[in-house]
């Protein structure tokens, strides 16, 4: 009578060494290297590794397995560390658990297997500059023609500006960016800055009178934030299950902490020649253009004094449906997703 292990094509044999002291290294947003220690006893019998990987948030998927349950990856035994890439659709900035067992394939096709190792946790990395450059190239395709603009603006409620005046000496303070946009964006939850808009209505050349963020608007002349003393970086490209697409750009004064953060993580753009936001000099005057067919979200990484601009009430409506606060990116959109993860 065959036991359950034999029925599944997997047989048990305790002599195979159990992996221990598992190490995860060289973690990217879509790959990692894994290695472990093994007792030398019966080591030469190992022909395969069984690797079980699960997203950590799936509470029920990573219990210790019965030996007759097939694992998610059967890999030929190779010298360690072993690179895991392309075996799963790994998502960036995601916590995973992993366990390993060793196996010996028999002539009849059955496997002899070790006990499962301990379960190890790790988190995949953010998008690298390489991945962000792929996003950048996708965004360039739909950015559209460039329109002139002259001011950056920030909409909020009256209470917000009262608070800034009373508690911060009328100086806007950078805050940590929320988790809106691409899940793998290296600026989410890490970069500190102040969000500004610059999009204009094509028929008036002025900012729209409606806003999802509040009826009071701080306006500041573009040259106060965007000039040859600032660096410009591409931060993200996303949509929220709508026809609108958003591009996040970062303006960082040269040498500032924000500039140093972005220099290591984000593709830098030429101030005068890019598809999204440009600053050029014409007859001694600075001229500014923004892309027409994407909604730009501009993060300025230093404090900004309200005295450098004006605060006034807008005449339009507050369109909450257009808010991007903590908005989740549509993972199925072919326009703004890259193949390495969501």
Automatic annotation (TrEMBL):
Give the matching SUPFAM superfamilies.
Fibronectin type III
**The Fibronectin type-III domain, residue ranges:** 18-127
What Gene3D superfamilies does the database record attribute to this sequence? Immunoglobulins (2.60.40.10)
**InterPro entries recorded for this chain?**
FN3_dom, FN3_sf, Ig-like_fold, PHYHIP/PHYHIPL, PHYIP/PHIPL_C
Q: Which family does it belong to?
A: Belongs to the PHYHIP family.
This chain's function reads: May play a role in the development of the central system.
Q: Output this protein's name.
A: Phytanoyl-CoA 2-hydroxylase interacting protein like
């Amino acid at each position: 009578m065959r036991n359950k292990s034999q029925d599944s094509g997997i047989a048990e044999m305790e002599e195979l060494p159990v992996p221990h002291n598992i190490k995860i290294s060289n973690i990217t947003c879509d790959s990692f290297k894994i290695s472990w220690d093994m007792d030398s006893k019966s080591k030469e019998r190992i022909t395969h590794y069984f690797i079980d990987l699960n997203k950590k948030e799936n509470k029920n998927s990573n219990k210790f397995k019965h030996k007759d349950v097939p694992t998610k990856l059967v890999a030929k035994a190779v010298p360690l560390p072993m690179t895991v890439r392309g075996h799963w659709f790994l998502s960036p900035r995601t916590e995973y658990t992993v366990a390993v067992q060793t196996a010996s394939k028999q002539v009849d096709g059955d496997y002899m297997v070790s006990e499962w190792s301990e379960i190890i946790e790790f988190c995949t990395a953010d998008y690298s500059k390489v991945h962000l450059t792929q996003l950048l190239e996708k965004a360039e395709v739909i950015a559209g023609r460039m329109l002139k603009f002259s001011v950056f603006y920030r909409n909020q409620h009256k209470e917000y500006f009262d608070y800034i005046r009373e508690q911060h000496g009328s100086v806007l303070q950078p805050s940590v960016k929320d988790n809106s946009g691409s899940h793998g964006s290296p600026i989410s939850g890490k970069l500190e800055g102040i969000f500004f808009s610059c999009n204009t209505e094509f028929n008036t050349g002025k900012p729209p009178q409606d806003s999802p963020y509040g009826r009071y608007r701080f306006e500041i002349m573009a040259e106060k934030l965007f000039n040859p003393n600032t660096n410009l970086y591409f931060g993200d490209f996303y949509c929220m299950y709508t026809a609108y697409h958003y591009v996040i750009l970062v303006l960082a004064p040269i040498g500032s902490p924000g500039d140093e953060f972005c220099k290591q993580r984000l593709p830098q753009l030429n101030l005068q020649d890019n598809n999204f936001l440009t600053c050029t000099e014409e007859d001694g005057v600075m001229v500014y253009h923004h892309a027409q067919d994407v909604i730009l979200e501009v993060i300025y990484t230093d404090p900004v004094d309200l005295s450098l601009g004006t605060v006034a009430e807008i005449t339009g409506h507050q369109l909450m449906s257009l808010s991007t606060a903590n908005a989740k990116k549509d993972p199925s959109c072919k326009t703004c997703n890259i193949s390495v993860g969501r």
